[in-house]
Amino acid sequence: MLHDLHTARERIRQGETSAADELEAALSAAKSEACKGSFLKLHEASARAAAASAANRERPLAGLAVSVKDLFDIAGDTTAAGSAVLADAPPAVTDSPAVARLRAAGAAIIGRTNMTEFAFSGVGVNPHHGTPWNPADPATHRVPGGSSSGAAVSVATGAAYIGLGSDTGGSIRTPAALCGIVGFKNTARLVPLDGALPLSTTLDTVCAMTRSVRDAILAHEILAARTVTRSNAPLSAYRFAVAREQMLDGLDPTVARAFERAVRAFRDAGAHVEEIPLAQIHGLGAIQSLGGFTAAESFAWHRKLLAEKGAGYDPRVRARIERGAAMKAHEYIELFAARREWIRSVQQSLQGFDAVLSPTVPIVAPPFADVAPGEARDAEFFRINALLLRNTSVVNMLDGCAISLPCHVPGELPVGLMIWHGALRDDTILNIASQAESALLAH
């Protein structure tokens, strides 16, 4: 089992290893067959320099490997967002704030990771650069989830301790769930979006994947430039809701078993867990029937590029972006009003609950062959994409925060437990997750 960043940092302090040795192990993992297709570019020289300089300073990330999704500006690199049409774009002049904060904390930026083109899918398929192999199943090429596909695989294979990514409808939590790692989506406003190519300016969130909750807390504190208020309150001190409507529909048998075990672990720990309808979730379909914020806002950004280089786009991504062309100004404005009312209604239903428990995604990672590029598989691709983002996207529309924790047992494909609530509940969610991580392991 891979150790987390905190363990690596302690081993460095104890003289059992060094940042340089840890980095060489990470680079070896990044070049391994298990990580094939996960990195678009490795930054070996600068990462080694960062690891070497960490020996003389005590910084939170201690010169350890961090991967960066191809969505973020890194000074001197072209930010192509997994596309072919931006491959010849000029390189970034400066680091994005997220990258700069990680670097200042001592990160060894190991490289740029593969992703769904322009971050517009939860599956992780990329026809230009290939689709990384989900490391959870060496025998079958299963999708890693997206859009932060390469970031997830980099963390799950040992190539990075933190995978910087983004989450617009689930692009951190979905791949974390499918690859068996931790993914935390903070309240969107807490981390700057500057220097990240936008998908939806309303829903985009800058966040990360890690191997443990304590690493997730550290990554969030660095990215958000804030300190999480810690609490050691046990699970028995909290009140949880389980949303029945939609969130539990059509669960894969492996997911259903894992989620049932997770809820039982919470109850065995003394937590109060109550099923509620939360029927408002069904209303999201009508609110977003014209494509929602993502279609409208992505089309506004891509309109000129589509006119010039539309033939070079992934056809599945292009089709979703072009839905935004039909949205009228009054419909876009009305969408904001509908969202505000929907958030108010959901918050009212969740009064008295500290968090909600749901499966992160209702299915385990599907085989790549089912969704590989090609018109013959488009219908299945869009069906699976909708399933992979069905539960997670609720939190984005809520402007909320959520974490996905592994809740499967050995021998099962990975399953994620999502713990979530509304805006600015980040510290509560992280503190609950710390207790839940231990309870799930013990159970």
UniProtKB/TrEMBL annotation:
Coiled coil: none annotated. It comes from the Bacteria. SUPFAM superfamilies: Amidase signature (AS) enzymes. Pfam families: Amidase. This is Amidase. Residues 39-430 form the Amidase domain. GO terms for molecular function: catalytic activity. It comes from Ramlibacter albus.
